[in-house]
Amino acid sequence: MKLSSHNIELFLAVVDGGSFSAAARALRRAPSAVSMAMANIEAELGIALFDRGAREAVPTPAALALLPHARLIAEQLKQLHLHVQELSQGLESRISLGIAAELDHAPFLAAVRALSQRHPLLDIEVLTAPQDDVLDMLHRGRISACMAFAGGRINHEEQFQLVGSDALLAIISTQHPPDVAGRPLYIEELVNLRQIIVASRELDLADARPVVGLSYWRTDSLPMALSMVEAGLGWGNFAASAIAHSLAAGRVRRVAFKNTGNGLVVPIHLVWMKDRPLGMAARSFLQLLNDAA
């Protein structure tokens, strides 16, 4: 015999209700019909599932062995029915999201996790790359939306929503020579120090404002850029939340400036294309990002 979803529903109702009459009330069926249906299931399976000698329906060892699997299948069926309903209402079967490598990933991933809990069967792809590459993927249609720092100019092909902000901090290694790392600087002095930046492997910088140094080295990974700064290879200008651990561990320090502050606050946007409006899942993701902001 192959157990059907109705058989599993009936089995769980008796276990959870503790009696055939309680299961009958939950299922809105006559107690005799529930008892007879369960007896038919037991006969076809060739095993007893409940001890009928007691006043209550006591699960047998065989029933207890089947119980966790039955619950798992019931939950999967529930999710499947819900997903079918969501698909009929316009939910995407798959969504691709991007995040700029320069950003702290924690808020983004928290929203992804919440989205997966809201839509358990939704297929979610997450891509990360330097900001110029992520925006290029967006324009090519590779991703539905991306989280990125606000640019210096508004691209009229894009639509965006503010979802947060972060401060860009100029940092330097504690291994740097004391004449640089150990004293306040004029911001102009950074021009003559090598800068470490996160940038595309192939694309030109769309926004060169963060580049201060006349000499700079590029990498496409924020962890690598931070490691390069920690190693004393140059200074960096990175999102405060993404470098908090390195600051707390004393591997880098904020540059103290004589003539200005250190910590330019930059808005963070979720960006998508005007000619490709957000679908149901992407709108849910945007809402979750806003709720967490």
UniProtKB/TrEMBL annotation:
Keywords in alphabetical order: DNA-binding, Transcription, Transcription regulation
Keyword Ribosomal protein: no
InterPro entries: LysR_HTH_N, LysR_subst-bd, WH-like_DNA-bd_sf, WH_DNA-bd_sf
Domain HTH lysR-type: 1-60
Gene Ontology molecular function, alphabetical: DNA-binding transcription factor activity; transcription cis-regulatory region binding
Pfam families for the chain: HTH_1 (PF00126), LysR_substrate (PF03466)
Family: Belongs to the LysR transcriptional regulatory family.
PANTHER family the UniProt entry points to: HTH-TYPE TRANSCRIPTIONAL REGULATOR, LYSR FAMILY TRANSCRIPTIONAL REGULATOR
Name this protein carries in UniProt: LysR family transcriptional regulator
Organism from which the protein derives: Janthinobacterium svalbardensis
